[in-house]
Amino acid sequence: MWCESTNPVLSLLVHTKLAVAIYSRESMAAAALNSSRLLQLKTVNNSAQCRSFLSSSTHRSFKLKPIMAALTAAPTVGISETFSRLKKQGKVAFIPYITAGDPDLSTTAEALKVLDSCGSDIIELGVPYSDPLADGPVIQAAATRALARGTNFDKIIEMLKEVVPQLSCPVALFSYYNPILKRGVERFMSTLQDTGIHGFSLSWILQP
């Protein structure tokens, strides 16, 4: 879900042409409460396929996530352009969220394609983390299942390299800081750029 907010950015990571904006969940929740329209789906031709896929899921809830900032070096139409187009049309963005590797990465790959064909404006893909304190019980459970199946950041990236070029909507990655700390900001952001990811959402940075 996208909501415009006038609250200041808490932190900003910048590497070459890539920028990641980090917003507080509290400011986004406040913005969501003030929004008169929370969700608007696009009309698509293959709605039967979408209904079939959604009916097989045991969870049908939307979760408010932080703003996802566009990676400005993305070679295709990205997140900023998507929001600009929707704003001109008087619409809000439909941004479904799924956890990578739940139940496995092959299913995740197919889910990304189905969500794209169902009319998603942007897809947010969560990187499972062993201590997801910023998430609720549903996403925590999804992360636990994904990690139990051996899902890790490198495997997710390899899957995305194959899938992202097949999608018509931008994909944003959601992660905790641990994968960045492990690899370093420069290497991490370079990896995202090479993968074709259009955005990145980072949760819970402690300020000094």
From TrEMBL:
Superkingdom of origin organism: Eukaryota
GO (cellular component) term, any one: chloroplast
Subunit structure: Tetramer of two alpha and two beta chains.
Residue stretches spanning the membrane: none
Designated name of the protein: tryptophan synthase
UniProt keyword list: Amino-acid biosynthesis, Aromatic amino acid biosynthesis, Lyase, Tryptophan biosynthesis
PROSITE patterns: TRP_SYNTHASE_ALPHA (PS00167)
Region forming the signal peptide: none
GO molecular function: tryptophan synthase activity
Catalytic activity: (1S,2R)-1-C-(indol-3-yl)glycerol 3-phosphate + L-serine = D-glyceraldehyde 3-phosphate + L-tryptophan + H2O
Family: Belongs to the TrpA family.
Pathway stated in the Swiss-Prot or TrEMBL entry: Amino-acid biosynthesis; L-tryptophan biosynthesis; L-tryptophan from chorismate: step 5/5
CDD domains in the cross-refs: Tryptophan_synthase_alpha
PANTHER family hit by this protein: TRYPTOPHAN SYNTHASE ALPHA CHAIN, CHLOROPLASTIC, TRYPTOPHAN SYNTHASE, ALPHA CHAIN
Enzyme Commission number(s) of this protein: 4.2.1.20
Listed Pfam families: Trp_syntA
Enzyme class: lyase
The species this protein was found in: Salvia splendens
